[in-house]
């Protein structure tokens, strides 16, 4: 045990952890729309090139600098927009109210009418992994509407579903899952397989890892369900389970995924959805969509909210300076956390202080004392090992010795 503790102690002093340099920043002010508008969807093809859709402005907005600036793009009939999918930098689709679908072949310089579902709202568009201009995708919408979409147009799929369908996720050209009001359905060659076993809750978002049977569905009451065989769904507990609605879920790879929902909720998993932790988003606005691209994640929602999770290099020149002081360190009975950088104040009303062990498990929670520059936390119940402390977008580490 002494050897392990000595090694951890050596690692701590040789490789000190500076303040966390990644976090969520709201870049919504960069979008030239009213502050009460809803950003309904976000889609990026690389770190810099992306599009968002808006409800009240009835426009697509394009960025080629990672969200620093946005250029408005008009659609042919100027309808409210809810969803977008880009095949490449030139070719893609967007859709929304009145069931109208638009297509662009020039990166959004023109969005031309491509077809309509009818009066209902289109809720989602998806294509198979690594799509081309010849690929065929799915559209979903109200009143059980499911359509195929391609370069040539849209075609209705008869599935005999009455529920609103909120989301779709494709794993290949001929296989997909859809979800909505109390339903999850599995489609192969446009035929409902009727092979799903799930809790009959209201499902709002769904995502499958490309080319696999591993998928996730989220919805009312903080529900996160997972399947590993494409048929049997198991509920996964999380910090907001039973409390609020989650609207979307997306995984960057076989480990890292995010779910978003009401009250600015952002949950993150680093073990393929087995466990989830809550991240500080900095907003209480509803978040409806999440989209990771390489080492950057975007989330969008109400009140012109557009969050970007990335390196905070441009936020403050002091970000590389120490922000938190933990004393004593190593510690045994208590630690005192103090602000040492006067240019940054991590103490926010209702900010949660979280302590994690080396397995990534949250072992202790505390709440800040508003307007107090020093926090004292009892750690007498923690076993001897190294721990990480997280407060909002800032973190540091300390060692417990017995």
Structure description:
With 402 residues, this protein is mainly beta. It is 3% helix and 44% strand. A hairpin with a 7-residue loop joins strand 8 (100-104) and strand 9 (112-116). The longest helix has 13 residues, at 2-14. The radius of gyration is 23 Å and the shape is globular. Residues 1-20, 313-322 and 342-349 have low confidence and may be disordered.
Radius of gyration over C-alpha positions, nearest whole angstrom: 23 Å
Q: N-to-C terminal Cα separation, in Å?
A: 10 Å
Helix content: under 10%
Structural class of the secondary structure composition?
mainly beta
Strand order of the largest sheet: 1-28-27-26
What's the main sheet like?
4 strands, antiparallel
**Any idea what the shape is?**
globular
Uncertain runs are 1-20, 313-322, 342-349
Q: How confident is the prediction overall: mean pLDDT? A: 87
Strand content: 35-45%
Number of strands: 35
Can you count the helices?
1
């Amino acid at each position: 045990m002494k050897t392990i503790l000595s090694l951890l102690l050596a690692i701590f002093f040789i490789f000190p952890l500076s303040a966390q340099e990644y976090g969520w920043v709201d870049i919504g002010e960069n979008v030239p729309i009213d502050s009460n508008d809803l950003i309904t969807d976000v889609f990026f093809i690389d770190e810099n090139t992306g599009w968002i859709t808006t409800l009240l402005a009835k426009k697509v907005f394009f960025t080629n600098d990672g969200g620093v600036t946005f250029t408005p793009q008009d659609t042919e009939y100027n309808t409210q927009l809810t969803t977008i999918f880009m095949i490449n930098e030139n070719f893609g689709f967007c859709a929304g109210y009145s069931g109208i679908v638009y297509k662009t072949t020039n990166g959004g310089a023109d969005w031309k009418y491509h077809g309509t579902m009818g009066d209902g709202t289109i809720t989602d568009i998806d294509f198979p992994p690594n799509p081309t201009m010849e690929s065929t995708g799915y559209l979903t919408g109200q009143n059980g509407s499911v359509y195929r979409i391609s370069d040539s147009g849209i075609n209705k799929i008869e599935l005999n579903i009455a529920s609103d369908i909120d989301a779709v996720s494709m794993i290949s050209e001929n296989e997909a899952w859809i979800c909505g009001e109390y339903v999850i359905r599995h489609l192969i060659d446009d035929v409902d397989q009727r092979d799903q076993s799930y809790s009959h809750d209201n499902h709002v978002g769904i995502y499958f890892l490309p080319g696999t049977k591993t998928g996730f569905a989220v919805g009312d009451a903080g529900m996160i369900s997972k399947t590993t065989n494409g048929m049997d769904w198991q509920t996964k507990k999380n910090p907001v389970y039973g409390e609020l609605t989650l609207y979307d879920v997306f995984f960057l790879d076989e480990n890292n995924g995010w779910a978003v929902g009401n009250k600015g909720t952002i949950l993150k998993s680093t073990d393929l959805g087995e466990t989830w932790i809550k991240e500080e988003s900095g907003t209480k606005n509803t978040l409806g969509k999440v989209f990771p691209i390489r080492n950057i994640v975007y989330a969008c929602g109400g009140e012109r909210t557009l969050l970007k999770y990335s390196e905070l290099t441009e936020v403050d020149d002091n970000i590389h300076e120490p922000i938190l002081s933990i004393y004593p360190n190593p510690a045994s009975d208590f630690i005192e956390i103090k602000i040492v950088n006067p240019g940054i104040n991590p103490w926010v009303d209702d900010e949660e202080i979280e302590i994690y062990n080396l397995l990534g498990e949250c072992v202790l929670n505390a709440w800040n004392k508003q307007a107090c520059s020093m926090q004292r936390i009892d750690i007498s119940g923690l076993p001897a090992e190294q721990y990480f402390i997280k407060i909002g977008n800032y973190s540091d580490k300390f060692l417990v010795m017995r």
